[in-house]
Amino acid sequence: MAQDKKQAILKGVLKLVNRVGFYHINMKMVAQEAGVAAGTIYLYFKGKEELINELYKMIVTEFNGNVLEAYDHDGPIRDSYNAMMTQAVVFYLNNKDYFSFVEQYTYAPFLFKEYQEQNFTLLLPIYKMMRAGKKQKLIKNLPDAVLLSMVHGPMNTMLKMHFAHKVDLTKTSMQKKFYDACWEAIAIDKK
Amino acid sequence: MAQDKKQAILKGVLKLVNRVGFYHINMKMVAQEAGVAAGTIYLYFKGKEELINELYKMIVTEFNGNVLEAYDHDGPIRDSYNAMMTQAVVFYLNNKDYFSFVEQYTYAPFLFKEYQEQNFTLLLPIYKMMRAGKKQKLIKNLPDAVLLSMVHGPMNTMLKMHFAHKVDLTKTSMQKKFYDACWEAIAIDKK
DNA sequence: TTTCACAAAATGAATGTTCATTCATTTTTA
DNA sequence: TAAAAATGAATGAACATTCATTTTGTGAAA
Q1: B185, B167 in Cβ contact below 8 A?
Q2: Does residue A131 share a domain with residue A95?
Q3: Nearest CA in chain A to B161
């Protein structure tokens, strides 16, 4: 089946990102990992560039889908916040390859201009929540960029530190401290 | 002079990071940019890998030196915080190439294990300040990793957004909002 | 059910290009 | 004039992509 093979190739790249790192990946390895011949990749993708870009699209779709699932439009913002943060962090903890791929993708030479534009696509779910929180006077009236950076930035750094064994983000106590700290950074103080 | 040429080569790489991007850089280009022959590079560096690693060392040294200069051990923490944040942000704003180099370096295949270990070297100045602040009961008693992530993470994200033209970090009003937000995230509330 | 013909899919060896590195030769320095 | 420094053409390895060939799938006819 055509779609199976396409997926197998994409997943192959992803596995390799973890095992050998983004820039040691070559088409022969991808082929081997996916269980196809090198030439076969070119039946499904125009070339390496398209392959990488499609993979990025796949990850964005999967990640955003996951995080948005945790967003309860009717419940309290604070609950949605917790659920979404957990979802995002756990997603990356379980998919280190997704994380390092996304990190590396930004500066990869494969990047089309069109993608560069939507390079903050992965922030859309957070952005959405911020807006709602601002309206409800629960979240500080700061520029969107600042609010986004106060959630996305720390998550990124924490994950990097986790994968560098500087901290253990799998511990729920650590997660809680971290989520709370970020919330306090963006929430209006109710004392 | 030997050191001049070494520096010229390192600076050449840096300029090229900006102009063509990390992964399009080849030794011929570096040579041309530095005004030497390709072979000359090998008189000063063992190879591309060493060249890249030395450059990282150079940047870390320069950056940390700059930021630590702003640290006044005798004055109030809050002032040091502001001065250091400003120093760090302005440094990267004026040296986009440094920023993108550091961002890309983490996942580059050149990275020796020994460097990977000290990959958070760039956080040492912040770390130092956190410690002092905790002692003075000015900064929250959170795990170091969390505190670090609440300052370093947002800075990274803001800079990325700035360079992607999503926000203008050169505006002092934006800088102030951002510095204050990060401070509130880590400081003990005095209300 | 088996056979055959044709198309679609897949293969992987061959190709051409890019590029890090080397080293015989030349230039500079002291 | 001899040593040190610099040069850049030559080398060879790595690797994306191509394409002539092989394999697999499909369905009509026997």
Answers
A1: no
A2: yes
A3: A145
Q: Are the beta carbons of A185 and B184 separated by less than 8 Å?
A: yes
Is-contact A186 A151, C-beta < 8 A? yes
Residue at A72 is within a domain: yes
Contact B181 A185 (CB under 8 A): yes
The answer to whether position A191 is within a domain reads: no
| Same-domain status, B99 and B127 | yes
Print burial letters for B127-137: b (CB count within 10 Å at least 16), e (below 16).
Answer: bbbbeebbeee
Write out pLDDT tens, residues A32-51: 999 999 999 999 999 998 99
Confidence of residue B60 (pLDDT cuts 50, 70, 90): confident
Quick one: tokens of A29?
């390895």
Nucleotide nearest to A37 (CA to C1'): C11
Domain of A100: which CATH number? 1.10.357.10
CA-based nearest distance B150→chain A, Å? 5
Choose among A119, A154, A177: nearest Cβ to B143: A177
Residue B103 falls inside a structural domain: yes
For C19, which residue's CA is nearest its C1'?
A: B26
Partners of B121 on chain A (C-beta within 8 Å) are: none
How high is the pLDDT of residue B29? 96
pLDDT in tens, B89-140: 999 999 998 998 888 887 776 665 555 555 567 777 788 888 889 999 999 9
Closest CA to B106 of A141, A23, A144: A23
Total domains in chain B come to 2
Do the domain assignments include residue B182? yes
Structural domain including B8 reads: 1-45
